[in-house]
Specification:
This protein has one domain. The longest helix is centred in the first third of the chain and has 71 residues. It has a four-stranded antiparallel beta sheet, covered by helices on one side. 12% of the residues are buried. It is an alpha+beta fold and 146 residues long. The chain is rod-shaped, with a radius of gyration of 33 Å.
Length: 146
């Protein structure tokens, strides 16, 4: 009978150590899964930021193209000379709230320079992406003759 008791106790001891090992495996698996999910979440966030920046750049390019076409379709004689590409000059800039949050996201500036026989048209659209702490700009330049 003594032999039976030792065998039973030995089996219980083995079963107990195996269940503890399974708990350790489960904890390690959960930690590994949490680390992987954190990495995947970071990749998704970076993707969203890059996508947002690309959207701002696409909007800037479309607005710059529209303004350039507007200036090119203006009569040469009535095209006012002036403007600045770096500061807002009355009559030579406008602002847009692209994402309808009440804050202007895009500033569109243009200059018209008289070169004597022609006029140089420059349009710069600056997309202010305050959520990323950076701005993106699109600049178009064209010549217009009478």
């Amino acid at each position: 009978m003594a032999t039976d008791t030792r065998k039973t106790w030995s089996r219980q001891q083995q079963a107990g150590s195996e269940s503890g090992f399974l708990l350790l495996e489960a904890l390690l698996s959960m930690v590994l899964l949490a680390l992987l999910m954190h990495g995947i979440t970071q990749m998704l966030l970076v993707g969203l930021v890059v996508d947002s920046g690309a959207g701002h750049l696409t909007t800037s390019t479309a607005l710059a193209t529209a303004k350039m076409e507007e200036l090119r379709n203006t009569d040469y004689a009535t095209l006012a000379v002036g403007g600045s590409m770096t500061t807002n000059v009355t009559g030579f800039f406008d602002e847009y709230d692209v994402d309808a949050d009440g804050v202007n996201d895009v500033v569109r500036r243009w200059t018209v320079a008289d070169l004597g026989s022609s006029k140089r048209l420059s349009v710069a659209v600056v997309s202010i992406a305050e959520d990323m702490g950076a701005s993106k700009a699109t600049t178009l330049v064209s010549l217009m003759a009478p």
